Structure formats: C-alpha cells, structure tokens
Amino acid sequence: MFIYFLSFSFCIYSFGPNSIEIKEKVAELDSDIGYLLQKLEDSGLIDNINIIITSDHGLLAIHLHFHAIISIVHNSLVG
Q: How far apart are CA 66 and CA 49, in angstroms?
C-alpha cells in the first residue's frame, strides 16, 4: 500500500513551513495516520504490515535578508 498526502505539499508551498495552516495540516495528517493505524489494528492486519513514513524533501523559509547575503557572496565569487 502506498499513500501520498498531496494536501500537505499544497499547503506548505501555499503558506510556508512556519504558517498556522501547516501546523493545522500536520495535526490533521497525524489524525489521519492514527485513523489508518487503528483500522489496521481493528482488522488484524497491523502485525502483518510494515509502515514506513518518509518525505521527498524538506522546506525552509528564506527571508529577504538571507537572499541579500546569497547575492553578495555570489557576486564576490563570480565577479
């Protein structure tokens, strides 16, 4: 079984990693995973299934002053 939570990606790209929306989405996904685990347990399948939770990458909020530092470093390296 493979499950991809597209709504999480949409939320983090729309509102950013430090937004209240993403905190709410994390709580929602936690509840969804809890529901899945409970259903697997109720059906007797929990001991016969491997559950691996992963992500494709992280996301970091970058502030404008950080962009300025990157530009200064880049310009000093390439002239």
A: 44
Residue 40 makes CB contacts below 8 A (sequence gap 6+) with 46, 49
pTM: 0.67
Do 17 and 61 form a contact (C-beta atoms < 8 A)?
yes
Residue 21's identity, in one-letter code, is E
Tens of pLDDT, residue by residue over 45-61, are 999 999 888 877 777 77
Ranges under pLDDT 50 in the chain: none
Residue type, 46: I
Report the alpha-carbon distance of residue 9 to residue 14 in Å, rounded: 8
